[in-house]
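Troubleshooting log. The previous run stalled partway through. Resubmitting the same two chains, unchanged.
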Amino acid sequence: MHANDDESIRRHPQYLDDFKAGDRISSGSFEVTAELIRSFAELYDPQPMHIDEEAAHQTIFGELVGSGWQTLAITMRLLVDAKLLGGNPIIGAEFANLRFHRPMRPGDSLKAIAEVLQTRPSRSRNDRGFMDLQVTTTNQHDETVLTQAWTLIVPTRTAVHD
Amino acid sequence: MHANDDESIRRHPQYLDDFKAGDRISSGSFEVTAELIRSFAELYDPQPMHIDEEAAHQTIFGELVGSGWQTLAITMRLLVDAKLLGGNPIIGAEFANLRFHRPMRPGDSLKAIAEVLQTRPSRSRNDRGFMDLQVTTTNQHDETVLTQAWTLIVPTRTAVHD
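Second attempt completed without errors. Output:
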């Protein structure tokens, strides 16, 4: 292995072999506006608490809050930009245990952290395997907004060397 | 109970008491365009297979496909429009077992079905309870695109009569 390869792996691990339990990938931040909340909700989740400030006051939230599905989508954007798999496509086998701990509000700034729980080779193919990640999305007060468990399909180095 | 109430419940069940295992709520349909796929992906999932027809040919998908997170968002829209809880807000306690069975493509027409698995009263509060649903999203060929398990927080009739 060349020094350059080593450096490249440290910057952007991308194959199953590059990851181990405990590794953490941290994202940048994403600023949430009322306009962004409304434009998503009008198309995908047109409920009063997501589209209308006045109507939102009558709900249990008491104010305009973002759709949970938009929080999910923003988390994906944060991890794509963080090059979670070093630019390899992020392809999920399963997503589990999604919990929305608190709503996303206008003015929030979200970040995501993905922590590697384990990597597992595929039983049937040596060019890929599975990686289990715990993904946590937080706001600017370091409060947890969303947690979820991802199982991704990740190529091994065998895939490129074969 | 008035005949009118009975009719209203049959049309749009909305309280925990109105649902039982085996009930199914079916949505209308949602037409997916290449433009819609790209506009979502540019903001939330800017990977080559979702934003660029040419680049998508080089991926394992071989063509432009929608982000899985957009499939999720469209499923929410379908079930909001279907008045899943009769207009009561759809608030999730947990979402689990999300599996993307096949990609969503331009020209697809998606539908969703939510099937009630069980209802459970809350142990601590008599004005609400939990409803477990299996949610299935299909395309115009009746192929399964997405399956997931929802646990929603649903008010009981006690909540309105207290």
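Takeaways: Chain A has six helices and six strands. The first helix of chain A runs from residue 3 to 11.
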